[in-house]
Amino acid sequence: MRVPITKKGFEQLRDELDRLKKVERPKVIQAIAEARAHGDLSENAEYHAARERQSFVEGRIQELGTKMANAEIINTDRLKSDKVVFGATVVLLDGDGKTKKKYRLVGQDESDLKNGKISVISPVGKALIGHKVGDEVTVATPAKTVTYEILEITFE
Fold first, then answer.
1. Which of 36, 68, 109, 111 is 20 to 30 A from 85 in CA distance terms?
2. Phi and psi for 96 in degrees, rounded to 5?
3. What is the mean pLDDT of each run of 10 residues along the chain (156 residues)?
4. CA torsion 24→63→72→111, rounded to 10°?
5. What is the DSSP-derived secondary structure letter of residue 15?
6. Considering the entire predicted model, what is its pTM?
7. 139 neighbors 133 (Cβ within 8 angstroms)
8. Rounded to whole angstroms, how far apart are CA atoms 101 and 112?
9. Count of helix runs (H) and strand runs (E) in the chain
10. CA 90 to CA 149: how far, in whole Å?
11. pLDDT the model gives residue 103
12. Exposed/middle/buried for 43, CB within 10 Å: 0-12, 13-18, 19+?
């Protein structure tokens, strides 16, 4: 199954994978070698911690490889649309008429609410897709139902 991702998001996955392979993996191998040199492995906490870290690093490398293999890079630089689509940055006015929110719709692996990036498969992302400036969108979230008015759609 192909998973949409922005070019920048794909580059971040690739950078993390490179760091894990070139920096973290060698560190863990060195830590295991040093812990082995201390003798009895059955009671060696350093050895067990290093093996646990190795397991995490190798699992993450495998996970990133799978994500990258399934990624479909969407070039958002050239997108133009009057509707909300993947890669759009949307300015919303909360139903109270006072609060503005700005979100960029990205792939699941890139979502970061603190930085205004929401997944296209999130409740808000799904509700916004296909709507235009001026539309009111009602979003049923786990916490409550919210209504937004779309004020602006841009592509950055």
1. 68
2. -75, -10
3. 87 96 96 84 83 96 95 82 90 88 92 92 93 92 88 88
4. -80
5. H
6. 0.77
7. no
8. 14
9. 4, 7
10. 10
11. 95
12. exposed
